[in-house]
Amino acid sequence: MNSTGENSTGKSPDIWQEQFISSHIFLYVKKGILRFFDGDKTFTFKSGEYFIARKNRLARYIKERRTNEFDYVAFIYEEDFIKSFQDKYKIQEKDFYAADTFVRIKETKAIPYFIRSLEFYYNSLGNPNDAFRNVKYEELLIILLQNQPEFAGLFFDFGFPQKIDLEKFMNGNYRFNVSIERFAFLTGRSLSAFKRDFENTFKTSPGKWLVQKRLEEAHFLIEEKNQKASDIYLNLGFENLSHFSYAYKKRFGHSPSEVIDNKKKTSR
DNA sequence: CAGAGGTATTTCCAATGCGT
DNA sequence: ACGCATTGGAAATACCTCTG
C-alpha cells in the first residue's frame, strides 16, 4: 500500500493488492464490507466502521465471494507528514501496546461528521488542492488523537522493526508474497543477517524454504480438501498459476490438475 | 515452451565491535 | 594496539518468473 498520500475514495486497486503496509492508513468503510487477513486472524469491517491499518505489517485484502461492491475513504499517512505534524504541535509520544495489524478506533461522532464534511467539500470544490488536503489530513489526525491519546504511540513511532524471532515470524507469514528483502526488514535484520539467521534456524535458504512450505500446504489443500489449484495459488503466495503447477509437479511428481482428474475417475 | 529480464543466493570484502 | 568475530553491502552466479 504505497500510494502517494492521496486520500482517495473509490476503488483504486493498488491498496488492495499490495501486501506490505508501508504507511499508517486510516480507512472508513462507506459501503459494503472489507475483510483482511494478517497471517493469523481475519478482520471484518462493515459499512460505517473505521480503523487504522498499521505500517510495517503484512496483510491481505480478502475478496468477498458474492458482491464485490464497496466504497471507502482512505487517508494514507506518510512518515514525513506525521513528523512535521508532531513538530508543529509538539505532541508527546505515548506507549501503545496493541499488537494487531488492524486497530479499531473507539467510536466517536466526530469521525462520521468529518467524513460527511469531506463529501460536501469534494462535491462542491471538485478537485481539492494540496493546502486543502493537508488541512484535512491534520484535522483527522487531531480528531484521532483527541479521541484516543494513546494513538500518539502508534503514529509517532518512527523506529525500525525490532529484531524478532525468525521461526515464529516466518511460520506465521510465509503465505505473503513479498520479497526476501521485505521479510528481512520486517524481522529487523539486514539482508545478510537475515539469510545467516535463516540458514541457522531452518537449514535452508529462505527462497527454497518458502516454496517448500507453500507447496506442502498446497498439497494438503488439494489432496485432502479437494480444492482447485486456481483457487488457492494466490492465497499461498504464488504469483502465477503456470509456475505453481510446474513447481508442484517437480515436488510431488504430478500436476495439481492430474490429482483432480484422478479423483474424478476413482469416484465414478 | 523458450528466452529475456528480474530476483534470490552465494561468496567475498571492508567496516565495526569487543575483549585482552 | 592486536586478533578475532560479527555485521552489512557488492558482485557474480544461479535460479525463477513472465511474456508471447
Automatic annotation (TrEMBL):
Pfam families: ExsA_N, HTH_18. GO terms for molecular function: DNA-binding transcription factor activity; sequence-specific DNA binding. Residues 164-262 form the HTH araC/xylS-type domain. Keywords: DNA-binding, Transcription, Transcription regulation. The keyword NADP does not apply. The lineage of its organism: Bacteria, Pseudomonadati, Bacteroidota, Bacteroidia, Marinilabiliales. The keyword Amino-acid biosynthesis does not apply. This is Helix-turn-helix domain-containing protein. Signal peptide: none annotated. SMART domains: HTH_ARAC.
